[in-house]
Design a protein that fits this description.
This protein has about 90 residues and is of the alpha+beta class. It has a single domain, classed as Phosphorylase Kinase, domain 1 (2-Layer Sandwich), CATH 3.30.200. It contains three helices and six strands, in the order αβββαββαβ. The chain has a six-stranded antiparallel β-sheet, covered by helices on one side. The longest helix is centred in the middle third of the chain and has 11 residues. The chain is globular.
């Protein structure tokens, strides 16, 4: 988590959730607000991504971590950390 926070240029992310399966931290970077989600397991990451599809948005997905932010910030972060950018549209009910 520290390596990703440093790459974001936001060394002090505010932890919002700290549970066994999910941690979530957020902070403001030069490129905008970012939320970092490191996962204990790949299964937990996949479950979160499946649920997030409902809400739409853009995420940079790595090996057991996800960063949610604006596309331009994610593209810059992807060049430093790798991963893949996923975009989803919110589902209407």
């Amino acid at each position: 988590m520290d390596q990703i926070a440093a790459a974001l240029g936001c060394p002090r992310l505010a932890v919002q959730v700290d549970a066994a399966e999910l941690r979530q931290a957020a902070g403001d970077t030069a490129g905008g607000r970012a939320t970092l989600l490191p996962f204990a397991t790949e299964e937990g990451e996949r479950a979160w991504l499946d649920e997030a599809q409902t809400y739409g948005g853009t995420s940079l997905v790595g090996d057991r971590w996800v960063v949610v932010s604006a596309g331009t910030l994610l593209e810059s972060l992807q060049r430093r950390l790798g991963g893949r950018i996923e975009r989803s549209q919110p589902h209407s009910h």
